[in-house]
Amino acid sequence: DLPVFPACRNLGGMDSVDWKSVTVYMLDFEGSPTSGVVEYGVVGLSGGRIRETGTALCQPVGRIGSRDREVHGISENQATRYPPFSSLYEQFVAYRREGVLAAHNRHAENTFLKDTWPIPPAVPDWRGKSASAQEWGPWVDTLSIYRALYPGLESYGLGELVTLFRCGERIASLAARYCPEGRRKAHCALYDALASAVLLLRLEETEDLRDRITIGWLLQLSQGLESQQELF
User: How far from each other are the two terminal CA atoms of the chain, in whole angstroms?
Assistant: First the structure.
């Protein structure tokens, strides 16, 4: 069960902006600090549905270790044929300029972006504090959101939440439609981005939350435990 619906505070006009009216780009990156991003996945959400998806392998900036290869299944021979992630600057700036970036555990995706391009050009703030900002955030983070709404779970890992909330069949169906052959499982970038997107869409489909979710509320819950204490 959900706790009492927490109110959103101190986010100006964004408090009342329905999240479905804003484009949310759910991101997932596969890679490591050594290799850099070797695969990206993005799911564009608007109007409460999937509007677009994208994915590609990326040339590593360093060695892909054997342990990383076991996790994501990408070899250097496969990835070196593709442009490096750094060549996609305009694409990712366009995502951030048009909408809000999202991830399951934003810290990993934010670190990859900042390590590649420390600061984007002027983009919308989305927090209502000013007209523009020069940062990849603020992020919508499904890990922090589920931690706030469902306290006390044993794990908030992506796979565990997918299992707990019975989203596996829905994600498998979407993966068959959108993911490249051979990349339709966990630790493949677009598959994980789709899984994270389904967790976000699931909240809108929950009776207690339907048509009540604002972008400001999502952003505030995404800030983590310290900020969410102010909500309850």
Answer: 16
Whose structure tokens read 């919308």?
A: 124
Nearest Cα residue to 217 out of 206, 207, 205, 204: 204
Q: Phi-psi bin for 69: left (phi > 0), alpha (psi -120 to 50), beta?
A: alpha
Closest CA to 100 of 216, 229, 228: 216
pLDDT tens string 179-231: 999 999 999 999 999 999 999 999 999 998 999 999 999 999 998 744 333 33
* pLDDT tens profile 131-157: 788 899 999 999 999 999 999 999 999
Identify the CA nearest to 74 among candidates 36, 32, 29, 38.
38
CB 94 within 8 A of CB 13: no
Instruction: Give the predicted TM-score (pTM) of the model.
Output: 0.90
